[in-house]
What we know:
The complex is a heterodimer. Chain A is mostly helical.
Amino acid sequence: MVFASKMPSLRIDQSDLKCKNGCNFFGNPQWQGYCSKCHREQLQRQRWAEKGLTATLPKPVQKKMERSLKLSSHSSFSKFEEKRLRQSETLKNKTNLLKFSVFSKSKSSEIQDQTPERKPPEFKVPATVYEMMKKDWAENFSNLPVQVDRECRVFVHRFIWDVINSSYVMNVDELSERVQRYYQQFIKYTDNSPHLVSAEPELKERLIDFVEKHAMTYLHDLPGVVFSPHGTEDERLDRAMSERIQQLSWVGEKHLECKLDHSNECSQLLYKAISELLAMDGAPFGGGKLAHVRRACLHVLELCGAPASADDLLPKLIFTVLKANPPRLVSNINFVTRFCNAQRLMTGEAGYYFTNLCCAVSFIENLTAESLSMDKKEFDCYMAMPASIGGSTWAAALSLCGAVKEAEEQRQHAEKLMEEIKKLQDDAEQLANNAETFEKEIAKKVQDVLAKTPLEIKPRRELPRLRVLRNSTGPLIDLETSKTVPEEDKQKIPQINIPDKPQDKIDLQFETLNTRTENILSFDMDKSPPKSPQNQPWESKQTGSFELLTPSPISFPLFDSRSIDERMDELMTPEEFGPDNLSLGLSNINYDIDLSDLSGDNSYAEDTPKEPKDPFSPDGIKKEPLFDPFAPQTSNYAILEKFDEFTLVDTKNKDASDSFEVVHRTNDFQTNAERSDPFGPVQAEATSILDENNSPSGACLLPSPLLPQSSKKT
Amino acid sequence: MISIAMATNRSAQRPNGAPQTKVCQFKLVLLGESAVGKSSLVLRFVKGQFHEYQESTIGAAFLTQTLCLDDTTVKFEIWDTAGQERYHSLAPMYYRGAQAAIVVYDITNQDTFGRAKNWVKELQRQASPSIVIALAGNKSDLAAKRMVEFEEAQAYADENGLLFMETSAKTAMNVNDIFLAIANKLPKSEVSTGGAGTRVLNDADAPRASSCCK
């Protein structure tokens, strides 16, 4: 018993003791829970099963199982799965039956001939049907006379009995006619029954539905009677349709020209519609199926939004069907069209929506590239695609899940990248900060260094001093101040020297020069004291005729070096470098030679000009004429000036002032002489070179211009 | 094939029923290109409403409306159809068993009139022979943009024995009139409705069923 099985079995109900078949007799475990009569029937049925006739008779046990399954499953999807299972089960049964079907048909006709009177007693409409009817009646038609209830049950019994019996002999269409005739009869009954005279037409319709529901609910579950009956290809068509829909799963909104906004509401409605369509298979009678279809269509209509006309309904319904892929669709539709009260299908809302569903299915069946208004090739491509790619709803869901997962991964990846970018940005910022602080530090250091080494201050001090000195022309004061800062002077000397001399110089060279010259000079200065015996007499002599020979007293080593540089440079480089490299080479070579030079210079300055000639003469002779025109003039001039200053500051001797004045004069004199003479520069240089080198070789090379000057000087 | 006379006109069968008014129920299909105003026409007829931009949420796909004639009550069950060309082949499913059809076209669009002519031809060939066909030239309020002349349509209607009116769902012009005209033209006798009605469905089903039984 269905209801008994449903109840919690903590206590044994009386109904539990009754026959499993639902007749009101008590059952016996020895008879497998049946009463004696039902047990015998059961045995007989088993015997018939061997003959291949089982399907035509009710199988209470199987049915009960299905029922309980149905009750337990609520979600449309589980139902859907269940239906699939059942479908395959029935298919298995079917194949078994099909083996026999060839002769079972003939057999059944034989049976019809032989045992028309034998069969009716074999079959009995189970009591559950009546119980259900009673219950339903009590709920819905309690105000109607009891006779109607009884008459309805009698009618249902007759109906079921006749349909089952005639299902052996008739094909589906004839059976359909017969069923329709029964409906017709019952309608007539409702119209004519004396008990229903005062009844409203709606009540009568409900009564008709009531009868149909209970008769069909029972018949529906009998395999091969009314639902995908024998002799039809409904099941095969079901599968074909299901495959077709799967294959068409790529068909989307744009193909059907129906627009769906993808809001939550919208998808909710779509899901509702889909679940209604899926539930259609679960409804065991036409009216129930129609109700599901109607509800599905109403959801779809709601989905359509404002102007919900058929123009919108049909495409969206097709879309919904494609997405739902309802199980046993063809069987269901055929069942409804054949065995549902035809009047319901023809008229009324349910009929209209069912027609729409039929149209949708028909459209899907006959779908071509043209009906989707797309390119034939493209369509074929889509159709050739394996269904697993296009996907069923499940495959679609799966691929969706995959896509979601992928999207999530991508998102995470993007997040990581964002983090990295942030890190990089932070690093970059830090780097910028570091750079800034570094810059500041450097600037500070530079400032500190600058502060430590007051480059700017010193020349300022000196210049004013110079001016003051010059203005005031108080040599005594100078001497005193200069004496106070002898070290500074030493430092200062190169600083002043360098910018003036090689103005084109690169800083680096400049620096090296600076330090080197410093060294040199300091060296010179340092070294000079020990040679003071030589120097001092030299300085003292400056005031004398020696001044005329050399422009400045202290420039001696420099001039020497320059001449040396020139030689050196020319060895290595072309003339162009000459004037610039003078100062560079100056340091380089001075180092080696200065000491000797100094001594030499001093010596030759004092004694004879021929002495330095020995080491340098061969070089100097060759180069001098080329060089002289450019560099020496300016450099000489500048140097002279510098040396004036230098001497001014540097000379710690009391005689310096005297010598100074003399030097200035000589400078002026020289420049004047140079300017006046067209050969001035050459002469000046020549003189200088001559002065420096005092080389007879130089004189030999340039005999005419140099000699007279030198002679003049001397 | 057994012909079953099913009463869509049940009041006539009521044995004890008062002879007051018969209630006749008719199925009426709306045919016509999409956007010619089929649903607007029906909404105007059924609800007396017109929404230029159709913000109403009333489903206009299936509607019923009752008209009272002098001795009978006519209940129209109006089935809207999808007008798009691609669904054209499905139309027979809608109009089978229909006792009336309104073929709608847009007077501002010559193409829709051409389609309407096709519908008429098809109905005359395939639908039940007793079907009442009405031709409605909708959007007559847009006469300034008229592309289909009234005379032309009238001549066509006369030729084919159709009811013809130019209607406007917007101004309600001729909307009720055309339904009334149909109601008047429909046979109210039990036999005709029964015969034309229900069994057509099974006739239409027959090919499918037989194809299954090959």
